[in-house]
Amino acid sequence: MMRLVLPLGGCLLLAACSSDPVTDPSIGTATISTTTATGTGSSGDDASAGPPTGSSGDGTDSSGEPTTGEPEEVFEPAPGGLRRLQSHQYVGSVRYLFGDAAAGAAAPPDDYSLHGFDAIGAAELSLQESAIEQLEASARAVAVAAVADRSTLGGHVPCVLEGDPGDSCYDAVAVDLGRLAWRRPLTAEEVAPLVAIAKDARAWGGGDFGVGLQYELMALLQSPYFIYLVEVGEPDPDDPDVRRLTATELAARMSFFLLGQTPDAELLAAAEAGELVTDDDVRAVAEAMLARPEARATLSTFYSELFQLRDLSTLNKNNDLFPQFTPELTYAMTYETLRLIADIVWEQDGDFRTLLDADYTFVNPALASLYGLPPPPGQGFARVDLPAEQGRAGLLGQASFLARFAHPAETSPTRRGLFIRTKLLCEKVPPPPPGVDASLPTEDPNKPQTMKQKLVQHMEDPSCSGCHTLLDPFGFALENYDPIGAFRTLDGGLAIDPSANIPDLGEVASARDIADLLVADPRVTACVIKNFVRGSLGHLERSGEVAVLDDLEAEFVANDHRLQHLLVELTASPVFRAVGAPK
Amino acid sequence: MSNRRTIPRRTFLRGLVGGSAAVVGLPLLEAMLDNHGEALADGSPLPTRFVTWFFGNGVILPRFEPAATGPNYPLSEQLQPLAGVRDYVTVLTGLRNRCEVTVTHHEGMTVFNGYTMAELNGLFSKAGGPTIDQLIAAKIGKDTPIASVHLGVSKHLSVMDSGTTMHALSHKGTNEPQYPQFNPQQAWTDLFGAFAPTADDRPLRSSILDAVRDQTAALRTRLGTLDNQRLDAHLDGVSALEKKIEATVPLCTLPPKPTETNTDVGGVEPITAVNDVMSELLVYAFQCDITRVATMLFHGGAAETVFSEIGLLSGHHNNSHAQDSPELQAGILHIMGRFADMLEKFKASVDIDGKNLLDTSIIYCSSDCAEGWTHSIQRQPIILAGHGRNQLVFPGIHVQAAPYPQSEGNTSDVLLTVLQAFDKTATSIGAGAPMSTTPMAQIMGTMF
After folding, report:
1. Of A115, A363, B112, B130, which one's alpha carbon is 20 to 30 angstroms from that of A263?
2. What ipTM is given for this predicted complex?
3. Minimal CA–CA distance to B240: which of B134, B135, B141?
4. Residues from chain A contacting residue B224 (CB–CB below 8 Å)
5. PROSITE patterns from the xrefs (chain B) (predicted)?
6. Host domain of residue B48
7. Domain limits at A160?
8. CB atoms within 10 A of CB A346
């Protein structure tokens, strides 16, 4: 059952949050079920008992006043409007339109993250001034590369390959390439200025067709119609109270979601011809998309963000303690996780929860050495079985996770736990209470302590224990994996005791133990879906979407937790196809 | 919308753009000043510059706060790195940051805008209002090719904010964070790239921007309030770019593009080197009068930054949770040393009228809390460096609003005083409890 997320019960009173619960009438009347996240799960009403508190968490855009009871069934989608193309979508589109060299030259501004997702920042935040200049510089670099090698562009607009194209070719570029770049047909009023710019530039460039082409492409790429997805929708003919995406908006949303690029000519043509209307139309297109290599790359991008794999290349580890922590090793860590996902999703099309409890992984010689495994043949990656005695399983036994959520010289049970809570269970953890002293107890040099012992002592403070008992035990069970993910039995010379009790899950003492409990937990299944809403559609799931997300979850479970099936069903779901009024 | 559709509309300073002429040493005093050297050649007043400088996780108050107040205050242990610029430094202690909520770390950022954060949600928040640099840029930014520039040094940012409050030191509004640039090469491009010699296609670029404006005007009719605000910001960016395109090429030598890219090697982030390059770029930008407003996010609050370059093994944020530890003390001294590096460069640099850049600038420095292990904002320290052409007190003083460990007053009073140094029409700053309408007379200078 899909639940909206309230702050973890034991932490609830500690949250500092705005006291403006009803700012959006569309969500203010919704009811929210209480979380089952914790053994001490409390109703949202408790939120009013403390000093300034929050009624909802980093997990859910449901700041309506919580009440008890079942979720209302009235479907209310997220508002429509603008979403900036994320960096990978910009580059993916350039690759489709102009080829690899142009994609290599593209340098769009950085993504802006909100709630841990670039997609949400892309839906809410404004571009800063320096970004507008970067968009111009990027457009120039792309256009120069596209003009130098016109082979891909020529596939979309053949006249650019002619020996001496006339000015009429600028019209063709505006019409045919413009339609692909802007994801819709251009009006005559929109074509004319583009062609005028091209002709002016050609004159300025001594009559060179390529100069005109370059500036025309720059104009297309600097347009808000390229930079922003416009998702305004239209009244659904079957239910005029609901706005659904127009056919071309839907084509674009699907293509960016599954392929990370602008919709291709065939898809736009199908959409314009009324062939992307029924749920089965949408499913068929989505299934075809998933067969393309771009779908794999896009899913890898998604999980690189979600699991923060992309941080690994700049992660700081103490060089004296961990000289083997090289860029090559961090690359291998990233690849290992993405390789396991690819194996589950694309090669096996199997239960996605295998990501958590897999008893195998993929290693190259460097990773094998880190894990204490015999090196695979050759220099590449090979599938290997995990050694049972290390207690590793799936993602939580992988170095990418273990190293990312650790300090430079020490492990961090809290951060490892926080990752599991927020990214695998989609729960929200509030900040520490005001005025609390965050110091760990001073260490007595005559009585050295393990990390676990220090944190257990820390948790004796009641102002800390509320949250830390929900976070740190995950990390205690992972203490046999050091700050870069190698197996260890000693922490600073002291024997590690990895046993721990996670209040809402149970007794654990290894990654394997945690994985076995998580796989059986429906919150994990629901969280897989929520993460796509957040990280792909660009909003925190809303109370008006709960019922539809429940349906999607049931569909996912009934189909063996296969991610490909989920992605197809998501595209056909009202969560994906409908929008609220423009924000 | 515009008639900018013909090509030879401007020739600009083609000789300069062509790069073969007018390579002049810095600063070009005579060309930019009037005959008396008391105003710019066009009669406008001599420029005053403004910088906010941020460091994360606070200080150790007993080691930071000077032991006596007033002028000639003794430098404390943690202020010792500023000895070389001592006369230019005013220290404010005992003031209370009156942010209305606490998240840990986030609320400290109120000292840069006087607003409580918006859209609070766990460890998420956005800025509640514009930061002081943007208020000042709105007043004086129109006079330079770039209204304001936003730089950063350590790129390992906060894990305690999934919003914008701590990731950008500058905000124009709740949905308009102005993120810092951490790569010195890109910072160079942002500041000076537009003036590097290229084929003069400025009319064409302007034509493209005209088309963007037309498209945006058509698009906005279909959208709601929030997205229209975003499109307004987009158009602000378009206008800023157009201003740069049309700007007179600065009458000074452009600095060479730095080789530094802020890349960690062997787990060591090149913080000192990046800070040096960023500070030098800022000096150039001020001397050339390319911009008058900057923000420098040295390293984030609750950030992942590790001062590996001085042998520290764990993150400064982590260290700041250990009260009065040697690692924390070493980190704070390192931060103050890097702040001093920038101030020393300012002091050693000559502004267009022959004064040094500390005489002509105001640098506002603070953190996100008073002390890291409590995250308290009750006694959040502020450092002011430079007097901005005697707008602020010189030589610097130590103002103590309340004896340790109490706190009084409002940190926003300092903000308002600084804002009035640039905008005498300003009567308040911020909103709600942190709002101020009462500037601080003690820190006003002879020309205030």
Report:
1. A115
2. 0.88
3. B141
4. 79, 81, 581-583
5. TAT
6. 36-196+254-443
7. 79-230
8. 16
